[in-house]
Write a structure and sequence with these properties.
heterodimer; A: 163 residues; alpha/beta; Rossmann fold; four-stranded parallel β-sheet; 4 strands; B: 337 residues; 2 domains; two-stranded antiparallel ribbon; 9 strands
Chain lengths: 163, 337
Amino acid sequence: MMSDSDKFTPVIVGFLCNWCSYRAADLAGTSRMGYPATLRDIRIMCTGRLDPTFVLRALQEGADGVLIMGCHPGQCHYQEGNYKAIRRFALLKRVLRQMGLEEERVQLHWASAAQGLLFAETVSRMTKQIQALGPLDWSRNWPNEEPFMLLQPYLHEEAAHGR
Amino acid sequence: MADKPKLALYWASSCGGCEIAVLGLHEKILDVAAAFDIVFWPCVMDMKYADVEALEPGSIDVCLFNGAIRNDENARMAHLLREKSKVLIAFGSCAVGGAIPGLANFSSRDEMFEWIYYQSPTTENPSRVFPQRRTDVAEGELELPAFWNTVKALAQVVPVDYYLPGCPPEVQSIELAVNALVSGAVPPSGAVIGLNIAVCDECPRERQDKKISRFYRPQEIIPDPAICLLDQGLFCAGVATRAGCKARCPQVGMGCRGCYGPLDGVYDHGARLLSAIASIIDADTPEEVEAVLDTLPDPAGYFYRYYLPQSLLRRRARENGQKQSAAEKTPVATPTN
């Protein structure tokens, strides 16, 4: 059994809606609730603003997971931004599944501005799930060094030309 | 003759359609021949590697390079032609983004070899003979280029000056590039030669309020000839794809495949398509959304049909575990003869 200190500390990029979840995070902080320091939170105005590109970029650049949090359905500051997020998230999950990503790596949850505890619990739970999965390290999927057997004589030539 | 700029054309991992597209210039090909001295074009002229190697560095003025990079030979030619060419143009979607050969990034080399040389129904290979890097024959040792696990776009292997997307690039796109090169009015290096508007902007179909409750595959519906295909539930990539083709596919009732790729400033063509397609789903609860999405099989295949190697994630994850998968090594099966 690994002790807690042996486990790796995942990096989770959080996209938090300005009106609910970011305030829930504030509440968790000001209320001194304890939760793992794994979340790198980014404030967005609405989960409806979340371009799937942001999630892919986070994973590509080394995040072990992505947590998207917004207002409960029906409570969006912009009426229906979180409904757009529901649709995009569902489709994004299908694409990520095809790309071989584990289910727990990318999650969508809701927390109102009053739900600091729910926010802290969500981060704690997701941290444990990702610790169990291990690091993602996406860039290992495309090593830069491909076998270049036939190219060797040419590469020496290239070095000679200083390119 | 000696004063004319020198032109080279090469095909790496591609289908040959780009070569046909160049011939599709018809009588304009004579203008190309009049303006350029064609020094290397394996499709129509017999030349060997050694002939290219013998050229001085930078002696080719323009090289139109089509095809993705999927093995050592493709990469070798990419490096060679980069060195010999002043201007290297990624010609066609395969060179620009990996395109159809790049769909191989949804599987691994081992899986592909296993299917192609053993499991596929039309293959009879009981002794499991697989291609080898080296084979001894009476005349000596034969060598095959190493087959990569991951297909790459040209710019992921060597620096590229311009991009000319399309599967294949339309005649008007090629003319645009040829005219720019002949007149010297070239765009800044690294640019895509083409328009920076979406296919929808060129499409004559009438757009309505987009709300769809299910997707149809082309064989399931006869689309109205005047209305936007996406409005009718047919997948169309035109919303997030660069124009330049005059919306040829949508005009004949087939949704845009996305071959011209993303517009300027877009990191990931598939993510943009995903975003646009998800936004028009007429459902609010996760269960309803899932039911609509069940009618869109293989979404990643739709969104990354042409630009998977050039996307942010580039390929499907290898089998888990941090070690390199068995696919990284040369296939282990040995011939029995």
